Amino acid sequence: MRDVAVIGVGMSEFGELWKKSLRQLFVDAASAAIEDAGVEKIDSMYVGCMSGGLFVGQEHLASVLADYLGVASIPACRVESACASGGVAFRQGYIEVASGMSDVVLVGGVEKMTDVDGAQATYALATAADQEYEVYHGVTFPGLYAMVANAYMHKFGTTRKQMAHVPVKSHKHGSMNPKAQYPFEITVEGVLESTRVADPLRILDCSPITDGAAAVVICPLETAKKLSKKPLVKVAGTGHSTDTIALHDRDDLTEFAATIRAGEAAFKMAGVGPKDIDVAEVHDCFSIAEICVLEALGFAERGKGGEGAESGETALGGRIPVNTSGGLKSKGHPVGATGVAQIVEVTEQLRGESGKRQVEGAKRGLTQNMGGSGGSAVVHILEVA
Amino acid sequence: MRDVAVIGVGMSEFGELWKKSLRQLFVDAASAAIEDAGVEKIDSMYVGCMSGGLFVGQEHLASVLADYLGVASIPACRVESACASGGVAFRQGYIEVASGMSDVVLVGGVEKMTDVDGAQATYALATAADQEYEVYHGVTFPGLYAMVANAYMHKFGTTRKQMAHVPVKSHKHGSMNPKAQYPFEITVEGVLESTRVADPLRILDCSPITDGAAAVVICPLETAKKLSKKPLVKVAGTGHSTDTIALHDRDDLTEFAATIRAGEAAFKMAGVGPKDIDVAEVHDCFSIAEICVLEALGFAERGKGGEGAESGETALGGRIPVNTSGGLKSKGHPVGATGVAQIVEVTEQLRGESGKRQVEGAKRGLTQNMGGSGGSAVVHILEVA
Predict the structure, then answer these.
(1) % residues pLDDT > 70 (chain A)
(2) What is the ipTM of this complex?
(3) CB distance B88 to A89 below 8 Å
(4) Which of 3.10.129.10, 3.40.47.10, 3.40.50.1100, 3.40.50.2000 is the CATH number of B4-117+209-227?
């Protein structure tokens, strides 16, 4: 298989974008990525989207979006894996380029979530959980992650206050990201006093409902050397796995097995370990998720994932800066776009283009994107070629 | 890229299966395919499904279905391209095996359409058309294909009666398929006198709402030679393309450009032409679709696609038997499963396992699967290795 490089990145603004449709958001991000790559044409296209059907009444996004991008004569494929849709789309694009099937591939992710009201959005998101055994009984994602949080606090003694440092750290990063939905800082007290959603989770522990799109252009590394004038960013590793869809089928609620396996596969392929990563974007859909994910990836010891944000280890300037973009919490979480937006952030970090939130000398970054309560997960490792 | 073979096939019954859930249908088909392949394990999995969200309130199917199949530790990816979801999923599986990324890959397709009423099913299916410019104005798929039919009859002089021979031929084939939803014969008079849906289309021109699943196991051809005791079926060609999502953006309503391009790509890769194909499964969602598709693939001259069913050319025993399974019309059309079910039928034909509907001496077959009113299309050519 051929080495693959990311040669272009683009993102729409993230937020409540009532004046932009799903197709417009996608075209904004895709056009920016194509322009950044400096390519004349793309050979094939992937798009990650969780639920065009339930959010905007539009499936068949491969056709719609290829059409509105002006490339409706190429292969285009929509990929769905709930909130991991974008990350899985990137992996499919990677496989297509690595295989030799196509040379220049666009991978986008998009979600338009604010055309429906909050109840309908919560219903749509809940279709990522087990419809027959979880959702039927009335639980939605804040409730599921609240169970994870309670189990974690009980098992490891992590405090509610420690957990609050996670979104505080992410908002600090996000305050430096002009495309973030909530680009402002929050405080630990603010988190603890915010509206209760599902005990122990408060609203400032929860990623928001967001409209947005992100896109990247990838090609063989050898082609990138000729095409691109920017620092070359290579896909060093990819890993993808699944786990039981329902929490009740797991031995340990606090262990995200799909992320563990996806991480192991990506690290093995890249020939590196957690200590070799300079910057990471992980799936902090809820504060507790970032904590468990950092442990699953080997960035923190078991039971100690809650300490990094408090100690500053996961902040800019710390040992392993996590979610420099602001993460899902501050940057926003347009579910199908998130996995691709993570690739955008890490690529910009490795190119040294992250401005105020630049991790100095970053040479290797990791992205982790997951669906549901961890029923699917995908990990990528990017490095300066 | 490596040569790829189909080594296992499986299908659930197709029909109104009120006692089987989406996950059960998928597991039935996937288990049958794995047993037929005789493999101990699969490395990765794809599933084509159009709208788990709108039909059963369940997205994140990669995780749900890997879990219920008992393989929730492998990469799994759901692919959606409206009614072409199954065919596109097969192509993604092909790319993954051909690339060297994985060896044994399961590709399934599934749709559970009868848990909602007819109006909701029609709404869900209409999300494959242009939501903003077609569906918003009240048109659904029978209306869109009726426009194609009227344009075609006007342009080429094909009669309403000629068109009726298409479903008559397909039902004759389907009457020999024990898994078909409607395994009985119909008459030309019956079609012409059946309920009007959208002029000139009658209900017996329209494929039905169906529950069902299909699955295949693929692996490198070299591995297949060691593993399989059955005749080896190789993937000789694959092609995939898109077209404008909306009919009003096309120069000619009767020309399916995505199918033309996908067919050209698949024929080129296989190094053969339409005359070299012994059996074909094509996307006859409406009678007029089969007619236009046969022309797009070069099986009929332009304007003469309506003559094959009447003359017997596309029937069993004819020059190019089309839809020996009964096609979408008689076998049924669980939208996400259809593209994979086409691969099942052609594989069985090439293995000589099709019983009463066997095409004698079939050595090479083609499948064509499309989404919406042809906004996406995928073509595969299989041949005896």
Answers:
(1) 100
(2) 0.97
(3) no
(4) 3.40.47.10
